[in-house]
Request: fold
Amino acid sequence: MSRIKSCFDELRTDGRKALVPYVTAGDPSPGVTVPLMHEMVKAGADIIELGVPFSDPMADGSVIQKASERALKHNVSLKDVLVMVQRFREVDDKTPVVLMGYLNPIEVMGVETFAKAAGRAGVDGVLTVDLPPEEADELLVALQGQQCDPIFLLSPTTNEARVSKICAAASGFVYYVAVKGITGAGNLDVAAVEEKVAQIRRQTDLPVGVGFGIKDAASAAAVSKIADAVIVGSALVRKVEESDGQSDRLISDISGLLGEMRQAMDE
Reply:
């Protein structure tokens, strides 16, 4: 059984929802990432989503784009990100880790080579933003061989037929983008999210995670009543930017916000 499935099964038994923080690997410097991952788990994270820095992150707003730029100044590559996951696994063999990024770095490494390296490092899921399921067969087969879950995005404009097709290709969980647009943009319409999540649930038994637009404890709590997982990214990455490279401050600020979200979700 995959770590992701075990995580959701355990949470379901406990009557709780998953808190899934996103940070960009290597931001603001490579040495901060693994300690930050451990601190996020202590603060209440159930699954960690680790962004792979990329020069053209088309689905991301300015906050996460700048995070990639800061990481790329240190030449952080996909190989470096896998090493970070491997170092995390030396201490934590339970918390699932999902890589989120774009297809180009995987193609440069080679799909099969990447999948094997991800499996060795302890990666549990891969979300490739710009890879639709129609073009994902090679990666799906390679990931399946490593017991690594392919995660796909669903959006407010995804119709029922396409929801069914995407869910059929996915495993682990599906990621519903709660707002139209890039990361960090738009206001969260909880009623609209609830309606769309209900539509998705009619098509799949996979857990449904909701991200984009979750900024604070109140929005995290509201979404946790609807979805199986609350995914928060830009609000955390903004804390990194505001820390001005001070690792103690950014770890404290991110842990504080996650702690508030965890408490609000559990209440």
Q: What stands out?
A: The chain has a mean pLDDT of 93.
